[in-house]
Protein: LD-carboxypeptidase
Amino acid sequence: MIHPVPLKKGDKIALIAPSSPVADERIKPAINAVEALGLEAVVGKSCTSKNGFLAGEDTIRADDINMMFADKSIKGIFAMRGGYGSARILDLLDYKTIRKNPKVFAGYSDITALHVAFNQKCNLITFHAPMPASEFYEGVDEYTMSFFKRNIFCNDSLGIMENPKDQKIETLVKGNAEGRITGGNLTLLASSLGTKYEVNTKGKILFLEDVDEVPYRIDRMLLQLKQSGKFKDAVGIILGQWTRCEAENKENSLELNEIFKQLIVTENKPTICNIACGHSTPTMTIPMGAFAKIDNDKFII
Structure:
């Protein structure tokens, strides 16, 4: 796997919108947040484009990615937000150019489709990280910012990935596992199955998180991964945050922990949960494709 060259102050950073449109009022604060890191923001056409629930036509969003990777003056690329639409442009991306020009690429949520594609097709380590128009535009806590900076400005091992002090990491299945980390948003991973962009978990540690999904839908998607052999192929599993994933009528629903026990614990793979990563803050930044370890209740990169 290729670890991109860490960023440094003064580097040009491309801001792109591969998925849903960026709210007009968030663009300037997002640029300011990037510049506050000592970086120079270059705004892609997709950031100011709209096509229904998409940030412009598929070609506009794909061209932004292809051009920003090809441009030697651009040292990093930040997705402004998630939403929906990244999977639509996967066939339009120039993977040869992306592989020849490895650089910092960061985002999360719908950006999971791009993480998996870049990890698997380009051998590029990417960053599951908060985004300028989703979190940074209104300011974030020190924990979130510290993790982000440690990833994009440095390529040293991160060591033990500790949660905030008031958030305990829990062990669902004890044991040790090591392998490269893959995954991200559960919805995107489930939708990749059966396509040429299907997530490959063989010998890897699988990370999962999601937002605004009721328990039965999480059950359905986890079952899809299970029946596709994705848990069996993985050496370990890490569960992040499940934000606003609650049933309206809890009496007629399984709790998430019950679902995890029935569908994941039964695979008998080392599994930890409640990792501070997902659609919430504070959140850690995770280098997708990097070598990682599970040591009982410890997550190490």
In short: The CA atoms of residues 95 and 276 lie 31 Å apart. The mean pLDDT is 97.
